[in-house]
């Protein structure tokens, strides 16, 4: 958790910061209110706008108790004196003031509100997929400014660099139409694909470090949510060779 990992995008390279409880180089001096504001509003303790590569557009949906639990966990990590590496962002995107109109166009702050027309299992899956696991950050297409095309929610998207496409998670024929809920839960637990083979790359990391550690009922809730989505065809294709 000492940072340093790079996320390379068309806007520049962003480096994960130190989020250990070190008081000088990490988040050790952050109050509970600082932490909640960072994840819910995308603002630093000094009021500076965070770049949305930090997925606060998803984390904003987390409940306050879950946010505080996350902070409590991070406080138990060994502190590191490693300084956070500065981002290498292309002009004019490097100007943080440009994030104010970006947020106005692409960001709705506030925790998840349950859909009264859906059952508890669906709502649990929606909360996990939209907020904690932030599936949309990779699996939803983006506009030219990097905002999510919410009308094509989870229909598949090109990753920031290269030619890798995050798959369609809707029940369209180009997505999960042929997958059962059991197929989805198995993939989230073990990475095993119903047609054989295993998920690798970034999704393999997600499974190893996140979804495989969930309770079985939470994986089942995510599967129920995905299977109930409106089907959307994948609109992105691989680049011509």
Quick summary:
With 241 residues, the chain is mostly helical. The chain has helices at 32-41, 56-59, 64-74, 99-106, 120-132, 136-139, 181-190, 201-209, 216-227; strands at 6-9, 12-15, 88-89, 157-158, 165-166. The strands form two sheets. It has a three-stranded antiparallel sheet with strand order 1-2-3, with no helix packed on it. A two-stranded antiparallel ribbon has the order 4-5.
Topology:
Elements: E1 6-9, E2 12-15, H1 32-41, H2 56-59, H3 64-74, E3 88-89, H4 99-106, H5 120-132, H6 136-139, E4 157-158, E5 165-166, H7 181-190, H8 201-209, H9 216-227
Antiparallel strand pairs: 1-2, 2-3, 4-5
Helix pairs in contact: 1-3, 5-9, 7-9
Could you describe the 3D structure shown?
This protein has about 240 residues and is mostly helical. The protein folds into two domains: about 5-105, no CATH class; about 120-225, no CATH class. The chain contains nine helices and five strands, in the order ββαααβαααββααα. It has helices at about 30-40, 55-60, 65-75, 100-105, 120-130, 135-140, 180-190, 200-210, 215-225; strands spanning about 5-10, 10-15, 90, 155-160, 165. The strands form two sheets. It has a three-stranded antiparallel β-sheet with strand order 1-2-3, with no helix packed on it. A two-stranded antiparallel sheet has the order 4-5. The longest helix is centred in the middle third of the chain and has 13 residues, at about 120-130. The chain starts with 5 loop residues before the first strand and ends in a 14-residue tail after the last helix. About 25% of the residues are buried. The mean pLDDT is about 90.
